[in-house]
């Protein structure tokens, strides 16, 4: 009976269709609403429209002029940009929303051939058959609501369509990052990006659409997909206590991501006991495999056997040259303003360049556009604060963060007479403005600055600091294309003032600045293929140093080293493609070109002799912006992932990288007064190649995550220096430079427990890092030209970080670290010559200082969890270096009464207790 009514209705439709086309109308619409246009047509054609008013009320500004046109022609024009379809039946016009009424049966409806309009049936394009809806029910038998996507068209040449939109938090209006979108019939889901945006490609039909995000209520809808369309989703917060998750928001990322990255959970970093109760995301990173420091209280990080200058540290796309305060004890980045921290050390995307070892991509969080909030901490040495306030309700907000230290009391308390008159202080500040211009456009601006002042002796004052600025515009062009343009500027500088008792007082300064522009675009070709591409360029400007007399009585001669400038540019493209059902490949190419620029001079040295001032044959002079030297090279980035199961994968990667900037330091550890040198005619850029292979496995419903990865890396033109080199204010620095080869290899093991009362991770790394400084000349050869351990070679590195939650308010955290002592050069004898005693030293880095190990314990006490409290707070009571281990930072040697004695310097040789109060309004 049902099918008989369908046939009768379609036959009537055939008659009505032909009659409706015979009517001709002349009418003009000028910026009217669709409802008014329909009423006007009803009066002109003596017909009746059938529709629901909410369907048409949303369409305003209808315009058009029609001369002797059929009703079909007029409606086609008026409804083209809407979600409405029409059907003509005698003197009636039936409007439908999204779907359409068919005037013929689909092919094979009764097992016979299609009937209906032969013109449509014979078209070369694909005929869209009706969608017969499939219903879905919840587990409680409630019907899942239906959402229709796109507008049904009669014919099309498209095989598939795109659903896209944004996922946001209903309460905060903020985008939800890494929310998982699951569609029935697909093997995998998709995740939202940093702006909460997603897109997914499907065929016409009915689907069950589901959105999941940690801490949010699940979202389910029945989708009827007719065409391309948008579905924006607002998720409600789930009111329940969740188990803590360490290091990453999506527990399966480590297994499924093709380009491996380490994600630091900003919120959970507060529970890890560190020096003097300070939160420090970068210190947390150093507890993970493959990332180490040269020692306690040192600046910089060593990643997979690389130098500290080989890490690109970005804050909202702006480079931070020195991310630490107070000789590396504290971070220079306010933890309360950070939203994401991702580290690439195995496979570096092609969009990043300029460093060999790793990328630390740090992103500030967006300021709330809904309500005012205040968060901060007060500790024994520092105070932090972060303020968020809306500027334009639900559109823009401002985030302001600040930190300051009051550390002088620590120096006064130290039992060291030489430090009694010392002073040390620092501060940093950050401001970010975010504005949602439209649903497809977003503007972000960030400004950051930091400053350290310290005087370890009464006659010297050291000042160093960072400045950074970035301006970013994110744009979604359509369902398949999006992009970002970023303008940034970064500066690092230090100044030294010496005011002694003699007449050699001076002022010394150094400064490096870079200004960068980057255009980064993304194209989603299909579910199986997507592209990243773009261009980037940065201009370096370096003031290598200047010294001037301080005061009229100083006899110091003024000196200024000539300025250095260079332009580094790159073009990059990468594609991620699902080659097979379980194998995905990410292949990228970055081509970088570097131009050292004038004005300036460059020395030319005699061939066949050591490079010394005496071997300079001529000095070349270059005009302003004249190219001194050009270097260029392709950089290949390839990563592959084979998914054995949903929770077990094998990954492999190859990366080649180039670095055109170097640090100048003849210390065994990095210091805040190390300088940066640009590649030029005599100093070549560094390069590196890295191979990696790893297994990634999750267990027990993602409760445990385990990874095992090995790497091998070779490097060229690694910068080192001759023994006793003069680095600062040297006009011919290339005479002190040695460039050699490097190699590093190792195995990294990590196991994490991500759920339950006890969670944390255990990491172990076995790695070696070597350097070779070989030359035909004895003066430029180190250790007979053989490979020898680098200053930061630590074969064994073990970390155990745990947190046990007794209740929802009380938890106990521990942090245990063991590392092999780093290499050092020891004196091995003395000899007399011409009545003077001289010391004989071993081969460079032949020995090691004692091993390092440290245990920290912290007790976290949270306030009650009442929802409507004015402020929420918690206390952290911690003891750093519980065992009182006197870990050496360095070992040095002095001669007293003709005897060589070894002395040791340490940063924390006793347990250091602290108590910190954290609050949030």
Automatic annotation (TrEMBL):
Recorded topology in the membrane? Multi-pass membrane protein
UniProt domain TonB-dependent receptor-like beta-barrel: residue ranges? 430-861
Q: What keywords tag this UniProt record?
A: Cell outer membrane, Membrane, Receptor, Signal, TonB box, Transmembrane, Transmembrane beta strand, Transport
Pfam assignment, any one: CarbopepD_reg_2
GO terms, biological process: siderophore transmembrane transport
Q: Where is the TonB-dependent receptor plug domain?
A: 277-355
Q: Which GO terms describe its molecular function?
A: siderophore uptake transmembrane transporter activity
Q: One GO term of the cellular component aspect?
A: cell outer membrane
Q: In which compartments does the protein localize?
A: Cell outer membrane
InterPro entries noted in UniProt: Beta-barrel_TonB, Beta-barrel_TonB_sf, CarboxyPept-like_regulatory, Plug_dom, TonB-dep_rcpt-like
| Main location as per UniProt | membrane
UniProt lists the family membership as follows: Belongs to the TonB-dependent receptor family.
* PANTHER family to which the protein is assigned, alphabetical: HEMOGLOBIN AND HEMOGLOBIN-HAPTOGLOBIN-BINDING PROTEIN 1-RELATED, TONB-DEPENDENT OUTER MEMBRANE RECEPTOR
What is the protein name for this chain? Answer: TonB-dependent Receptor Plug Domain
Give the organism, scientific name: Aquimarina spongiae
